[in-house]
Structure formats: structure tokens, C-alpha cells
């Protein structure tokens, strides 16, 4: 058995664990009361969807994508953004 074969199993496990961790950190959880779509998030902040998209482009607000690609906002992030603007 070569050194490569000895390291292959543990290395594969480490890579798999890291990929899983990264994916879980960036995955939008199941929809709940804390998640809003763009229209609702814009209304919540009393702004337009275009202004909301501009905030995301400038890095001033975080937008998340669901598994099907829908844009979602976390109510807590919207609250933090509103407080920062006060």
C-alpha cells in the first residue's frame, strides 16, 4: 500500500467534512417567519425593491438564495441595517 493510499481516505474525509460545513453555512434554512422575499423586505424597510437590490450590490445588506434560487432576506439582518441607519 502506498503512502498516497494511506492519506487518501483521511484526506477525502477532511475534504468532505469541510465542503459540508461550507455548504451548510451558506444555505438558506427552511422558510420561516424570519425570512422575507424581496417585495416584503422592501416594504419592511419602507423602500423599493430596486433600492434593496442596490444595498445588496454595495454590500450593505445580505441577501440569501434558496435552493431554487429565490432571493430571501433575514428579518434580523433588516433590523440591523435599519438600526445602523438611525
Essential attributes:
86 residues; mainly alpha; 9% strand
Describe this protein's structure.
This protein is mainly α and 86 residues long. The chain has a single domain (3-84), classed as Multidrug-efflux Transporter Regulator, Chain: A, Domain 2. It is 58% helix and 9% strand. It is built from 4 helices and 3 strands, in the order αβααββα. It has helices spanning 3-26, 38-44, 49-57, 75-84, and strands at residues 35-36, 64-65, 71-74. The chain has a 3-stranded antiparallel β-sheet with strand order 1-3-2. Strand 2 and strand 3 (71-74) form a beta hairpin. Helix 2 crosses helix 3. It is elongated. The mean pLDDT is 82.
- Widest sheet: strand ordering: 1-3-2
Structurally, the number of domains stands at: 1
Q: Which class in CATH terms? A: Mainly Alpha
Total helical elements: 4
Approximate shape:
elongated
What is the terminal separation in angstroms? 65 Å
pLDDT averaged over residues: 82
Report the structural category: mainly alpha
Tell me about the biggest sheet?
3 strands, antiparallel
Number of strands: 3
CATH topology: Multidrug-efflux Transporter Regulator, Chain: A, Domain 2
- Rg computed from alpha carbons, rounded to a whole number of angstroms: 19 Å
Low-confidence stretches: none
Order of helices and strands: HEHHEEH
Give the strand content.
5-15%
Q: Give helix % range.
A: 55-70%
Task: Quickly describe the structure.
The chain has 86 residues and is mainly alpha-helical. The protein has helices spanning 3-26, 38-44, 49-57, 75-84, and strands spanning 35-36, 64-65, 71-74.
Amino acid at each position: 500500500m502506498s503512502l498516497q493510499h494511506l492519506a487518501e481516505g483521511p484526506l477525502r474525509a477532511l475534504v468532505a467534512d469541510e465542503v459540508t460545513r461550507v455548504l451548510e453555512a451558506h444555505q438558506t434554512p427552511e422558510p420561516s417567519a424570519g425570512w422575507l422575499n424581496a417585495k416584503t423586505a422592501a416594504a419592511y424597510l419602507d423602500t423599493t425593491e430596486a433600492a434593496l437590490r442596490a444595498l445588496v450590490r454595495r454590500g450593505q445588506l445580505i441577501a440569501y438564495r434558496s435552493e431554487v434560487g429565490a432571493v430571501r432576506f433575514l428579518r434580523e439582518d433588516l433590523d440591523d441595517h435599519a438600526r445602523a441607519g438611525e
